[in-house]
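Notes taken during the Thursday session

The instructor put the following on the board and asked us to keep it in front of us for the whole hour. The protein is Dienelactone hydrolase family protein. We were told not to look anything up and to reason only from what is written here. First, the residues (233 in total):
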Amino acid sequence: MEYPADGLTMIGHLALPAGADRRPAVLVGPEGMGLSDVERRRADALAELGYVALAFDLHGGRYLSDPEEMLARCMPLLADPERRRGIGHAALDVLRAEPRTDPDRIAAVGYGTGGAIALELGRDGVDLRAIGTINALTTGRPGGAARIGCPVWAGVGSEDPIMPPAQRDAFTAEMQAAGVDWRLTVYGGALHAFHHPPVDHPAVPGVGYHPRHAQRAWRDVVDLLAECLPVTE
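Then, after some discussion, the predicted structure tokens were revealed:
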């Protein structure tokens, strides 16, 4: 699926469930490196569960395997909520335009930078049924979280140096002050991007795969969707 966003031509991956009726839908956001087969497979798995799923793009069809190039693009993006909202809204428009999507029943699930985008959609007041993030304990502008109208689940590794305890505390304080229905799961011994299978290129320090927690985190995502966005109501 090609669509414009952030001055680029994005290339997302749309996965459709069996049948022809309208179904609830899920946005799937990738880690900072960009859309890869990992997120494509997750979208496909969600389609097998009965959801319309769009794994969205961050970098105009590119996967940034060079850590320095990835950080050079993602750090300004993480510092600019309006750009994050623009990328999220563009993907959301594509998902809503899909005839199989029930536009009133959409959730957003994101990892790393993709999770920060999912949270920013919530802070922008988008009508979502749930927001799920891993490695994305980003905070917003004062008062922004008050516009989040759905449950928020966040997962993080206990040994994640990019999302340390101080960042966890700031995130949970923001959610609590805004009256959000929030949950935080800390996976013991896990590093940043613990959910992502090993890559065959250099990674930033503090990143590491934890297969047992990766499986648990996926089950937690599926459970969040089953609770807040059941395939049949």
